[in-house]
Specification:
Length: about 180
């Protein structure tokens, strides 16, 4: 019996070593997180609204620069209409249901109320829903900030890398 057990252990070791050798350094299983750099190109909505995003593990939530924010009511539901600019500086007006209002602590003093909407964000070959607050980020270099709530359980951040995942998914969001 010990011979059979020993043979079994050797066989299992052989299979494991074979898997490790074929996997290589760039291999990832479905359960593993994708690696992103501190700056990534992403796409939002079916309009292929592309923009650069700063990946920020120090921020709790995601935020995007939005202009012309106004509130609407549709069938007793509050909506938000807003304008985003893509990487070519073209304007895109979107409407989304208001998910909630966030209360953001200001650097100086007090708080600021910001509307939060859900956007489909394409990173690499996959899209993910993200709660994003609409903010005035015109003075920042990157219009979109991806925070921990978006990154968690999906990505690992390589702070020395940029543009690791080109957005390739096709977003079919009927709300766009």
């Amino acid at each position: 019996m010990s011979g059979n057990f020993s043979d079994c252990i050797k066989a299992v070791r052989g299979v494991c070593i074979g898997l490790l050798l074929t996997a290589g350094p760039g291999y990832a299983t479905a359960d593993e997180k994708k690696t992103v750099g501190w700056i990534e190109s992403v796409s939002i909505t079916t309009r292929d609204l592309r923009m650069d995003a700063k990946v920020d593990t120090g921020a709790d939530f995601s935020s995007v620069h939005a202009d012309q924010i106004r509130y609407l009511t549709r069938d007793s539901v509050r909506w938000v209409e807003f304008t985003l600019r893509d990487s070519n500086n073209s304007e895109h007006t979107l409407q989304r249901p208001l998910k909630r209002m966030s209360r953001i602590k200001k650097k100086t003093e007090g708080y600021q109320e910001r509307p939060v909407v859900v956007l489909q964000i394409c990173v690499g070959d996959a899209r993910y829903p993200a709660q994003v607050n609409l903010a005035q980020r015109a003075h920042f270099k990157y219009p979109l900030l991806l925070g921990r709530s978006f990154l968690s359980s999906r990505f690992v951040v390589d702070p020395g890398a940029k543009y690791l995942l080109e957005p390739t998914c096709h977003l079919n969001d009927p709300e766009n």
